[in-house]
Please model this.
Amino acid sequence: MKSDKVLLMPWIGKLAKNVWNIISVELGWLACIIGAARGYPWLGLLVVPILFVIHIMFIERRNTRKIFIIALASIVIGFFMDTTLIILGIIEPYRWIMPAPFTTIWDIMIWINFSLALDTSLRFLQKRPLTAAFLGAIFAPGTYYAGDRLGALNFSEPVFSGLLWIGVFWFFAMPGLSLIAMYIYHPKKVTS
Model:
């Protein structure tokens, strides 16, 4: 009986971390989107670093350096991807600090926030690049569309065309981010 309890405890801890990760990523996204939509784009700049510190302190204490590397990789990919979407005229975010055609600071905070899920609730995608590609292509356009509906950004017409482009971008971005996370968090040991 005691051995069953010992085996169950790590599983419960991992489940709790994943549930918290999903909740915190959603909270960060909402802070960024609602903040920008309501004229408080600094809200994401306040909330996401708090969630980032909580993640480091309670979820991934031993991986602080790796968390920062993945966040930086996400910033680079996100900056270029969303700036490209802006240049192509597909989206136009609520402007704050960064001049057009560059993406905004609150959008960069979304990417930092998203990076926290890559080795927690989305870890299962690290060894499944095709699944990552399809899930990215299917679900990411909905988050951009929600951002549009909430007022944080605007789509150009026709909206469906923009959603397709976002799906194409994320078809490549999601497996790329997942593979980078796998390489950074779980490098294969080289044997001689």
